[in-house]
Write a sequence for this structure.
């Protein structure tokens, strides 16, 4: 008898953004004439940088001739891209990361979801609340939790993030083994200072724990004092894995390219206490289950690091950050407390009411899609998240409609 992994039965009916898309489609079907502005899922709307397009075209042409054609590439990514990543994203910022510690992939969603496979099922996992749902759901699938009760899974250690701690989780009272951190944060847009991140690195070192640091929104940081990478902190190489993505940075949500950094010193332990390098384990998993990102896409990603590419990426980010500032200011003017939008493309708004009710109100009355905070965890129940990923014209239009409904 073929039996299922019953951990899947513990999951909520559908993935958050799939659920929202379904509701929006149903609304649109009933109101075909209503124009809807989407500020829900963080999906970019502006075209890829020209430098990336030119590099991709050139790479596609290479695939058209036998002498320059490429078949399987290295599973970990081509050296031309890994070397640029190590130099520009880390070494130039004073973080000691080598090219062979970079694993190119097709997305931070997959990477953050897959990494937990390397670890035992009976470890204690600490998850901020609110949180990007992929971290929770993949641990549920793996069997690290009990059932879902009172909006939380038994067995996880939740780290509440709210106004009281400026949306930066405090160290847990009980001992944990695996810690998920995301900064600039999705969904709240909050940031972490170096001294705060240092506490987590020290905690992980003292407790033989591991931090999975999701830095997918690093490119949106405007404040020079904030850390861009956990490896700017001393001692982080032993206790942290970092995730990055070109999705939001350079408009690659549909093109797919990201990477994970696994330093050679980064370690985990066997049940009898032997230390193992995670690098070798991840390499084994990655090369078994993944055949690499396509050559044209890696060439496009490489072009981000050219002078032209850097200028074009900056223009994209500046555009989205202009939207974020406008959204934040407008909601503050309407009397709402907000966080985010200053070093992040997300604004987290305390709606002071049920988040799904707020979502329904904005959709039905204003034709604007947001993300209800409850979808990110119990602590998000009275919040909504507004994404800055759209044109300024649409953001202005959405805000005008929201002002109409709320004032
Ligand atoms: C989000 O809206 O939180 C993100 O777009 C989801 C993702 O990157 O997978």
């Amino acid at each position: 008898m073929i039996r299922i992994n019953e951990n899947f039965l513990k999951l909520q009916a559908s993935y958050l953004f799939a659920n929202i898309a379904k509701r929006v489609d149903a609304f649109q079907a009933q109101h075909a004439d209503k124009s809807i502005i989407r500020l829900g899922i963080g999906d970019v709307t502006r075209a890829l940088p020209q430098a990336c397009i030119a590099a991709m075209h050139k790479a596609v042409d290479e695939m058209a001739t036998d002498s320059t054609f490429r078949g399987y590439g290295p599973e970990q990514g081509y050296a031309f891209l890994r070397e640029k990543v190590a130099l520009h994203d880390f070494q130039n910022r004073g973080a000691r990361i080598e090219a062979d510690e970079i694993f190119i992939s097709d997305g931070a969603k997959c990477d953050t979801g897959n990494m937990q496979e390397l670890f035992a099922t009976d470890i204690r996992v600490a998850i901020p609340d609110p949180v990007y749902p992929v971290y929770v759901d993949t641990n549920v699938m793996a069997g690290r939790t009990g059932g879902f009760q009172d909006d939380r899974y038994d067995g996880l250690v939740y780290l509440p993030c709210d106004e009281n701690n400026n949306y930066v989780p405090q160290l847990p009272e009980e001992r944990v083994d695996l810690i998920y951190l995301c900064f600039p944060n999705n969904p709240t847009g909050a940031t972490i200072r170096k001294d705060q991140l240092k506490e987590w690195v020290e905690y992980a070192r003292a407790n033989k724990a591991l931090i999975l640091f999701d830095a997918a929104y690093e490119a949106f940081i405007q404040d020079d004092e904030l850390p861009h990478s956990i490896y700017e902190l001393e001692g982080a190489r032993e206790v942290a894995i970092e995730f990055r993505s070109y999705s939001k940075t350079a408009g690659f949500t549909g093109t797919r390219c990201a990477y994970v950094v696994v330093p050679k010193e980064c370690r985990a332990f066997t049940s009898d206490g032997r230390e193992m390098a995670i690098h070798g384990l991840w390499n084994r998993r990655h090369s078994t289950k993944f055949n690499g990102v396509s050559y044209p896409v890696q060439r496009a990603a490489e072009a981000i690091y050219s002078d032209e590419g850097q200028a074009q990426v900056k223009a994209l980010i500046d555009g989205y950050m202009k939207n974020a500032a406008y959204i934040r200011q407008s909601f503050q003017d309407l009397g709402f407390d907000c966080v985010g939008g200053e070093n992040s493309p997300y604004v987290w708004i305390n709606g002071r009411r049920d988040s799904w009710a707020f979502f329904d109100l904005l959709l039905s009355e204003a034709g604007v899609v947001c993300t209800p905070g409850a979808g990110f965890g119990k602590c998000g129940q009275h919040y909504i998240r507004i994404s800055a990923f759209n044109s300024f014209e649409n953001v202005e239009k959405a805000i005008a409609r929201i002002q109409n409904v709320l004032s």
